[in-house]
Amino acid sequence: TDVYLVPSMNPDGFELAQRENANNIDLNRNFPDQFIDPNPDTLTGRQVETRLMMQWTRTLNTQTPVVLAANLHGGALVASYPYDGSSSRQDVYTKAPDDTLFKHLARTYANNHLSMYSSPSFPQGITNGAAWYALYGGLQDYSYVYVFIVVVFGV
Would you give per-residue pLDDT tens digits along the chain (155 residues)? Predict the structure, then answer.
């Protein structure tokens, strides 16, 4: 098993204690998106951090197929799973083809995290991203649709 860790995709934002990088761009809205930006090869107009992450994950996946990734965010204490956006651009549950697997993985994680599981905001500590709030250009959907399976855990 190979394990890869990226301590921070947004070191500028970490240093500045904000979502945006030093160019005031939210990197988790900067990836190709199947609903509004369906060209996964478009690097033009993307932030350098986004371009590098796209290139690195594609390279990894051609060497040895990546089967699972976890993406940790600050903020809400919840295990969120794809899709994060919807074709209707509404905050509605949007099933990915692997929805059953994603729910199982999210529940397994949340079941082992008492504070997450006991969340008053998220039943059993999990949510479909688009049902929570729709976002477009996120790393989670990009990785699932164009690169490999991914689950996001908020901590």
Answer: 778 888 889 999 999 999 999 999 999 999 999 998 867 777 888 999 999 999 888 888 777 777 777 777 777 899 999 999 999 999 999 999 999 999 999 999 999 999 999 999 999 999 999 999 999 999 989 988 888 755 444 54
Tokens of 70: 């976890």
Angle 32-41-132 (CA atoms, 0-180°, nearest 5)? 15
pTM: 0.85
User: Could you give the CA distance from residue 128 to residue 131 in angstroms, rounded to a whole number?
Assistant: 5
Q: Please state, in angstroms and rounded to a whole number, the distance separating the CA atoms of residues 38 and 87.
A: 12
CB atoms within 10 A of CB 20: 16
Q: What are phi and psi of 49, to 5 degrees?
A: -65, -40
User: Which of 136, 132, 105, 130 has its CA nearest to residue 119?
Assistant: 132
Q: Give CA–CA dist 74/48, Å, rounded.
A: 22
Number of Cβ within a 10 Å radius of residue 120: 5
